[in-house]
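To: structure subgroup
Subject: Chain for Friday's discussion

All,

I'm putting the inputs and outputs inline so they're searchable in the archive.
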Amino acid sequence: MLADLQEFTATVDPVWQWLVIMLAAAAPFIESYGAGPIGIIAGVSPWIAIAAAIIGNIVSMVLVVLLAGRVRGATGADEQPLTPRRARFKKRFDNWGVPGVSLLGQTLLPSQITSGLMVGFGASRQRVIVWQIISITLWGVGFGLLASGFVAAITA
């Protein structure tokens, strides 16, 4: 079955391979750490799959950050009461800061949600974007390398 999937992937134009992986990575809960390995398992070159996944995840995250900044400015988010879930996130945000939430938050929530929440709580958009890019890249490369090792082990 894996061989059939990889044979099919080999017949698809590389541009479409990139686009599909980028679109998958833009989806919350799939992100760079899911889309890259999916592409690798499907037979896309690991470097292409990892790069496309990282780019797709970053683009969607940046769009969310920019939108969250505009919404926060327009609604006066500081005056709204926090739900219990948002209060828990705010506590973690206050304890860990932008770097900690960016690097560790992906274990709990997608980067798009954590970045939007951080901006909503008043974090600098630029700082959130930089730390999210670092996090998305680390998670994408890490899981991509694990997937490459997995595929190499099962196809050997």
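Points worth raising on Friday:
The first helix runs from residue 2 to 11.
The helical segments are 2-11, 14-26, 31-42, 46-75, 84-104, 111-120, 125-155.

D.
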